[in-house]
């Protein structure tokens, strides 16, 4: 709006060049356009939803202190704007007196347009932001606002140009607070309410499967999330600026974003609990089928152990000089836990049934495998006897196919081996030696050439 000038009549500063009529008209037109733009902005700020919310809210913390300062700034904005309006009105009235103003009128116009003709309230830095002091408005060359008249208890005098810059700086400060508060209020409470609705559904689902505070960790976590969301919403509503993160390096009013750190943490915690409860719900839906499978597995394990115990008695009776491993008793502990699982299902204690079924399924499969291994170990001597019997009969059948049946030595050795294998208790070591001798004699009988003498 032109270079700063000194007050007419001052003796310690150089005078500004007196404007001619055309320069005065251009300066008035430029100031008039700026005046209308500022008025439009101030009216928009007055009607801003964020400002109305701040005026009617019960504020606390950072927002309370910053809004108190911002209200003072908004008051100064209107006072400064009114002072500029009055100065511009005087200048317009002076210019409209005659088509071609005289030297005295031009000097007076120059004093109004470029001299310290505006009395504005003193500038007060923003004390509401901890750790930051808003800088005073600066002229384009970095100097403080023009103030040829100096400060006084009523305010300070400055040029219209400096007053406009003061208005712009104060407006940006006020708008920054208003926009930030509205952005937080627009974003966080609605998201918290949606999360709270999801929390209520999750709690209802948790109660349906027996997950309650004090009885299950997930119930305790739901209780904590409920308290945290309630406190977070109350804090966001009363102190929105505490949840605002300014964007570094941005000078635009309202540059930043809502801080959703606490909200995001609780949302993740709720999602974890929801998945855990859904797993418990899945247990409720397939509990009967899983219990039936468990009963079947444990029943097969019990039958296998019973068969192993029976086989052990048979082995001890039929096989001599054999080490037969002992067979353990039925899986009593697993049966008791299976009974407890059925009780949990009857009483709807799904949160307790879920981990118990997981454990029982693994242990039941291990018990069935152990019973099978025990049966295999116990019946091993009988398997050896059956294998020796097969070898003996197979060798005799081979001799019969070749027509070698009347050999006394073969007959003697066959009868000796058969007596050992079909007697009780059977001496497996002696029977194995007898079968081997019979096989050797058979091999010699089937081989052309002289035979070895009988042992």
Automatic annotation (TrEMBL):
Entry keyword Coiled coil: yes
The entry's keywords: Coiled coil
Coiled coil: 270-304
Ranges for region Disordered: 122-154
The name this protein goes by in its record: Uncharacterized protein
């Amino acid at each position: 709006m032109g270079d700063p000038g000194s007050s007419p009549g001052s003796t310690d500063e150089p005078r500004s060049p007196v404007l001619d009529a055309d320069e005065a008209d251009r300066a008035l037109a430029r100031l008039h356009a700026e005046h209308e733009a500022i008025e439009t902005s101030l009216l928009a700020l007055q009607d801003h939803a964020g400002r109305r919310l701040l005026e009617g809210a019960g504020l606390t913390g950072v927002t309370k202190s910053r809004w108190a300062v911002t209200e003072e700034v908004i008051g100064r904005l209107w006072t400064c704007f009114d002072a500029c309006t009055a100065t511009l009105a005087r200048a317009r009235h002076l210019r409209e007196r005659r088509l071609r103003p005289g030297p005295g009128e031009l000097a007076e116009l120059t004093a109004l347009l470029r001299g310290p003709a505006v009395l504005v309230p003193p500038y007060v830095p923003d004390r509401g932001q901890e750790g930051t002091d808003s800088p005073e408005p600066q002229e384009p060359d970095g100097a403080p606002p023009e103030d040829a008249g100096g400060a006084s208890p009523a305010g300070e005098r400055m040029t219209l140009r400096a007053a406009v810059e003061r208005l712009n700086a104060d407006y940006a400060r006020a708008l920054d607070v208003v926009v930030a508060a509205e952005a937080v209020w627009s974003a966080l409470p609605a998201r918290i309410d949606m999360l709270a609705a999801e929390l209520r559904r999750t709690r209802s689902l948790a109660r349906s499967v027996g997950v309650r505070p004090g009885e299950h960790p997930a119930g305790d976590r739901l209780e904590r999330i409920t308290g945290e969301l309630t406190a977070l919403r109350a804090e966001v509503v009363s102190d929105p600026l505490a949840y605002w993160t300014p964007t570094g390096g941005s000078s635009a009013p309202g540059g930043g974003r809502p801080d959703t750190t606490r909200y995001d943490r609780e949302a993740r915690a709720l999602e974890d609990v929801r998945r855990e409860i859904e797993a418990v719900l899945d247990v409720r839906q397939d509990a009967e089928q899983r219990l039936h499978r468990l009963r079947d597995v444990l029943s097969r394990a019990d039958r296998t152990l019973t068969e192993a115990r029976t086989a052990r008695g048979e082995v001890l009776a039929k096989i001599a000089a054999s080490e037969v491993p002992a067979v353990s008793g039925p899986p009593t502990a697993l049966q008791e836990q299976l009974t407890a699982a059925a009780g949990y299902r009857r009483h709807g204690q799904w949160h307790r049934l879920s981990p118990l079924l997981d454990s029982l399924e693994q242990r039941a499969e291990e018990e069935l495998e152990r019973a099978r291994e025990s049966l295999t170990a116990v019946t091993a001597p009988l398997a050896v006897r059956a294998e020796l019997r097969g070898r003996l009969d197979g060798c005799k059948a081979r001799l019969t196919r070749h027509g070698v049946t009347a050999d006394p030595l073969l007959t003697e050795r066959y009868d000796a081996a058969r007596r050992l294998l079909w007697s009780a208790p059977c001496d497996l070591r002696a029977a194995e030696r007898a079968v081997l001798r019979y096989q050797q004699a058979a091999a010699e009988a089937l081989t052309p050439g002289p035979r070895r003498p009988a042992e």
